[in-house]
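Handout, section B. The chain below has 458 residues.
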Amino acid sequence: MDSDDEEELELQNDSIAYFDLPQDSLFTVAQHPVWGSLVAVGGSAGQEDEAPGAGWIFDISSAPSRPVLPPSYASGAVSDPQTSRLESLFSLEGHTDSITSLTWTLPQGEVLISAGLDGRVKAWKTDVQPPIGIKVTPLGEAQEVDEVNWVAACPSPTHPNTIALGAKDGSVWVYTIDPSDPSNALQIVQSYFLHGGPCTAGAWTHDGQLLATVSEDGSLYVWDVWGAAAAQGLTNDNGMTIVSLTAEDQRFEVLGGLYSIAIDPRDTFIAVGGGDGSIKVVSLPRLGDAAPARATGRGGRNARSGADPTAGGQILASLQNHTDSVETLSISVASTSPLTVLLAAGSVDGGITVFDATRSFSIRKHLVAVHNEFPVVKVEFIPNTWVLTSCGMDGVVRRWDVRASGTTDTSSSGLLREWKGHRGDGDGGGVMDFVQGGTGQRVVTAGDDGISLVFEST
């Protein structure tokens, strides 16, 4: 071949390990809550129109750490001998469409839940037996809906092995899984049908008492799953919710619906992100206060006084700093004196905004087009820190120190590290999800290019 016709392809792979068994896109990744080296990924199994969903469990502990290298070092392609190939410990089979949600139950990770576009919710008992390995046993499945959008594990220690899910038809379901009874493993605890559009996101409060969900119709409901609020007379007239806000209340109306949610680690407020780039911040009730109060009714009207701090449902802030949908939110309580509460938002417009909740949600940092103008897919704080990790459709994972304030781009102060290895650049190789444990030492991705990469912070 004439040298003038040659095209040099330069690849950069910063990972210490990779998992490349999938034949198509990965959409979700989950990490065991006790044994953090155990990771599950899920997505589509192949290119065929009727390709089933597929998932795998693998162990990242076998990936050796790399020595600290000079900044000028650039590794080679995925086949670089310094990058370890990870093997599958177990294959998650039986879905007839893509797996879009994975989670291990809390607090011990006894059961792995997979769910997806086929509406199936499958439970897998996971017995970790170090140093032997892991034994995975199919427990059973349920299918009450046509398509599952998300799954979240309940953190309440008094209600172990409980999950919630939101469906395309707008319904919300809560299941408790009994690992000892394969004949009736998934037991319905509650089901809710107030959303008028697809239920797009959901989150439990950190004490596991309440479940908050949002919908494409612009509604936010906080469900009293276990009856703690009802015992204090705090539920709405419907007897199911403690906060009910919809687009009927013009103060809460968000054009294009709601697509993301995050709850303050102290369970004092909820932030929800909308299709028009706006964010609404809503107070949560204080369960356990001596004086009971009625919560907000449908449309956001409070049954007692709008100044009642125990009721919840007050709109604390309406934020607008993005021009497109806010797809991801994360909240951290940084260890300062006094405490600093940070709210980070990632948008389809390619930007990330960090708000200071302790200063009336003023903008602390605005990162403009930080993923090369591609959509930001996920932002997540390392718990109780100023450190924020993000991923985007450019195929890059980045880590930020958000203590510095102002409007910046990727060349400005605050960027701690970036990891490359996925194809990206809009070529079907964006990072769709990641996990980073409690310390952020290792980041594991789910890539649209069908690869999961393990990055290490040095």
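Note. The mean pLDDT is 88. Compare this with the example in section A.
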